[in-house]
Amino acid sequence: MAVDPTGEGLKRFLAEDPGGPVVMLNLLRFREGGQKSYARYSKTVGELILGRYDSEVLYYGKGSTALVAEDGQAWDAVLLVRYPSREVFARMVADPDFQAVAHFRSEALSEAVLQATVPLG
């Protein structure tokens, strides 16, 4: 299962940019013991990198009871992060400081969804 954005995905993400801020939806499923690696990634990104890009975590929570989902579709955690623009997100993931810790996220996850959201109305 894919857990990291690809170059093609980032190109499409930027090409489809409606302008303005973007909130990224992260649905996370951890490998056995992956929470520790993800915590290391989160701490570094949260403390050192997001502020540099005027971005913020809006919500981070543990998955709970799935009321509507097929078997195996429940997620371990949900994360919402706001970025000023898609371009800012792309610059952040290319930042050498981000690249230095991104492997902790990759090692932590068995499956993920990383989806841009667009405000309605």
UniProtKB/TrEMBL annotation:
Membrane-spanning parts: none
Short name of any one Pfam family annotated for the protein: DUF1330
Record-linked InterPro entries: Dimeric_a/b-barrel (IPR011008), DUF1330 (IPR010753)
Domain of life, per lineage: Bacteria
Location of the DUF1330 domain: 35-110
Protein name (Swiss-Prot/TrEMBL): DUF1330 domain-containing protein
Protein's organism: Actinomadura sediminis
